Amino acid sequence: MVDTRTQSVSRAGLAAPRFADEDLYRLAEKHGTPYFLIDEATLRKKVSEMEQGFSEYKGVFRVAYSVKANFNPSVIRTFASEGILFDLTAANELVFVLKSGGSAENVMYTSITETAEEYEKIVRMGVRKIVVASYNGLLNLTEAATKAGVVVKAMIRVNPEVHVHAELRGSMGHGKFGLQFNGGSQDSAFYVLKKLLNTPGLEFEGFHFHLGSQIEDPACYADAIEKLEAFILGARRQLGPFTVNTLDIGGGLPVPYGKKVPTPKDLGGKIVEQLNSLVESIGDRFTLVAESGRFLSAESTVLVSRVVNIKSFGEAKYIYVDAGYHVLIDSALLRHEYPVEVVPGGKPSPQKVALVGRLCDPLDVFPISSRSKLGGAEVGKLVVFREVGAYSLVMNMPFHSQPRPPVLMRTSQGGYAVARKGQDAEKLFADEGGDCLSN
Hints:
Lyase, Ornithine Decarboxylase, Chain A, domain 1, TIM Barrel, 2 domains, eight-stranded parallel β-barrel
């Protein structure tokens, strides 16, 4: 029997949540399968790990949670109680944050489309720290601030155009995000900074960049910070003095999934050395912000499914579960190797094992991590997918008319609560427009 307390795993001494077998089966009987299960204590531990990883920074360090990774209100409420910042990219995310106990004062807003209507809405809702990434975006933000009669602290998102070895890259030449430092057009960081410094209603706050996801080598941060330093010093020579109050270095801290990865202390310590050097060079002890959605939420959550069939096909053994990639979309899109365990486990099968879902799609085959333990699989047993708390839960889709599964949370006090009710076929039918048939 597995202890109900959070236990250590072999990743540089860090911890991942474990749940007693009897609790998993009891919850399965009560709520059905599949279901997601979040561990509140792990969410809080991840915040602490990030803070410790950047503890050597000479100024103020703030953790920011990228809400896009998991906007379940119970997750947001937990992070709000930790007093951290929230990184948002959509006005609806702001609604979730405010209704879940967060405050607009702790929001950093980075729009992708940067429309005037969007800016007007979030400014009315109290957001005052906003990142711009285009000249038109700056004009729209100016209009929104003027209409509201408020002063907005504006940051500039830059694209350092450095090489990033990562699962998803956010910094590349001619990429979707950010501004080139000196692109020779109005959509360059220099031009936007020049305009921003002379725009009533806006105050220049600092810079933002995001290099990618699942970054294991800190060299890309060093390159980006070096380029930013050169840009700041050069811009001051041409535009006169300005103060950098905040620097947001984005996310990228890796989650292990199927392998060992550097810890926040491993990466943060090396990044902080370069940031402390930047402080000395530009003379501004800026507030340092590091965003993370995946790192803060992924390891907190498991998906519990049930074995519903087993089939031998030649030398292979196929284990069918009642989940599918409709609830773990990254398994199909990015071939994420989530660690998977049969509960209770048994001896490894002498056959080659394939773990497959309930969807009528050849892509509905789960990649198996080296950390997976599929021995002892039998019809009726549970299968637990670990580290699924980022993106999977919020990217559920109703393929094959599959309702959204329930989301449960183990609280810090050890009890279990419903964090999102499960959807049934009747509710899905109505949501898909079934009620419109009678109109």
